[in-house]
Amino acid sequence: MIALLLALGSSLAYGCADFLGGLGARKAHVLRTVMVAAPASLAVELLLWPVLGASFSSAAFGWGAASGVASAAAFALLYRTLAIGPMNVLSPVTALVSAALPVGVGLLQGEHLAAAGLVGLPLALLAVVLVSAGHGAGSAHPSRTALLLAFGAGAAIALQLIFLHQTPSDSGVAPLIVGRAVSSAVTLIAAGLMRRKLGSERPAYAMSAAAGVLDSVANLLFLLAARSGDLTVVAVITALYPAGTVLLARGVLAERIHRGQLVGLGTAAVAVSLLALT
């Protein structure tokens, strides 16, 4: 139950971070937004160091660095995917892949589900697709390149979660600090190489920083959930993050939630209840 609650908190924080990051990216090039968000995120993790501790063993450093590279790759592939579109088709593909791969890894590592979990897990995967799908998805047809990028983005997100799950349980926030430092370095290098394409618009500093803070909170909650529960359950619940984005878009931007997304939210509630019984 603790792992489930932590995963739900991680999902909500990821959804809020994506919402704020998306709004920030409307005002300036997305790399400018990340250049503000990444240091804010790293600062949070450094502040957590004295509270939660950090053991920089070779395993913590290695898996943390790997998660940082995967995080940077996920960011690049995801935004490239959504830029090509259609978002309402590619977003659920990415979310489903990011949930399904950790499930496969967890089962291969010997994790088992009770009867309720065997029903709740497929329902949660279905909810991921329904919640993240936009209106009118059936009328749009993505290109082969866009689909490949969507699978790549989902795989990179999944790898980030899997790598964090592999970190030693006594390493504290060390993997998060290393991962964030690596992903920040990759982002800064990319920004330097693309400086002529970034434009002159200033990022929304407060919004971008808030997105970075929430992303750190999401990573921390996922790490704690993965250390206290099964990856098969934690990863799927975390992948419900589009629900938070959808609800915020409805409340703040007055965007319409279509029928399929409402069904997805209801399916998610049922799935979480079943998984809580495992």
TrEMBL record:
Residue ranges that the Swiss-Prot or TrEMBL entry lists as coiled coil: none
Pfam families per record: EamA
EamA domain ranges (all copies): 146-275
Transmembrane residue ranges: 56-77, 89-108, 114-134, 146-166, 172-193, 205-225, 231-253, 260-277
One GO CC annotation: membrane
Keyword annotations of the record: Membrane, Transmembrane, Transmembrane helix
Family per record: Belongs to the EamA transporter family.
Protein name: EamA family transporter
